[in-house]
Amino acid sequence: MSNPVYLALDVPQLDAAKALAEKVRGHIGGVKLGLEFFCAHGAHGVHEIAHLGLPIFLDLKLHDIPNTVAGAMHSLHVLEPAIMTVHASGGRAMMEDAKAAAGENTKVVAVTMLTSLDERDMQRTGIEGTPHDHVMRLAELAEASGLDGIVCSGKEVKSVHDQWKNGFFVVPGLRPGGKATGDQKRVVTPRQARDDGASVLVIGRPISKADDPLQAARDIEATL
Ligand SMILES: O=c1ccn([C@@H]2O[C@H](COP(=O)(O)O)[C@@H](O)[C@H]2O)c(=O)[nH]1
């Protein structure tokens, strides 16, 4: 089985991002480029990272009207990402059009409820119920829209996996100690997420901000 860890390259300098990915490349399965990276370096930066030869997860979390999201997906097609994200709350038509505009080798997954949010945050945005119920509802919508899978926390991935057997599940909010830290609220360990059915484990700061990123990546790999 290939390494499910995608390293989140949330670092502002391109050279630092390349050096970090190069350093840990033997202990990860791919790299995730998000808003911080893409706003700073755009398509050029993606091409630079692609030279490393690792699969690329372009995590731009698109959320707009269907025509606009489809146009963005079409423009990004040329970068040949292995995985891309849209927000499930953009609705069915937006997800259908996003999938139709993506390259055939790109998995399109829907962000359900950010791992930085808990039930209280959810209620403040006017959504009642539990995070679990909300994620399950949006997972059903993403599947009906023809997407490949979803992004959810490790707290929900087992239930989603039980409901959507061949889905592709991306899980961020992972901490080796399993404790919520900083901005991440719905947190589990990488091992727990993998055991519960995650296809991809997104890990950023536990590696990128470690005193020794290579050792941190090795330690995480050893738990899997
Ligand atoms: O619900 C979500 C969706 C995406 N992310 C992204 O994953 C990484 C996590 O980084 P850490 O440093 O390991 O916390 C980051 O790039 C987020 O944008 C998420 O955390 N939660």
Summarize the structure.
By secondary structure, the chain is an alpha/beta fold.
Kindly describe this structure.
The protein is α/β, with parallel strands linked by helices. It has one domain (5-223): Alpha-Beta Barrel (TIM Barrel). Helices cover 43% and strands 16% of the residues. It has an eight-stranded parallel β-barrel with strand order 1-2-3-4-5-6-7-8, surrounded by four helices. β3, α3 (66-76) and β4 form a beta-alpha-beta unit. α1 (14-24) packs across α2 (35-50) and α3 (66-76) packs parallel to α4 (92-101). The longest helix is centred in the first third of the chain and has 16 residues, at 35-50. It is globular, with a radius of gyration of 17 Å. The model has no long low-confidence stretch (mean pLDDT 97). Bound molecules: the ligand O=c1ccn([C@@H]2O[C@H](COP(=O)(O)O)[C@@H](O)[C@H]2O)c(=O)[nH]1. The site of the ligand O=c1ccn([C@@H]2O[C@H](COP(=O)(O)O)[C@@H](O)[C@H]2O)c(=O)[nH]1 has 15 residues, from β8 and α9. The ligand O=c1ccn([C@@H]2O[C@H](COP(=O)(O)O)[C@@H](O)[C@H]2O)c(=O)[nH]1 binds at residues 8, 10, 34, 111, 114-115, 151, 172-173, 184, 202-206. Catalyzes the decarboxylation of orotidine 5'-monophosphate (OMP) to uridine 5'-monophosphate (UMP). This is Orotidine 5'-phosphate decarboxylase. One of its GO terms (molecular function) is orotidine-5'-phosphate decarboxylase activity.
Characteristic key phrases:
single chain; 224 residues; alpha/beta; TIM Barrel; 8-stranded parallel beta barrel; 10 helices; 8 strands; 43% helix; binds the ligand O=c1ccn([C@@H]2O[C@H](COP(=O)(O)O)[C@@H](O)[C@H]2O)c(=O)[nH]1
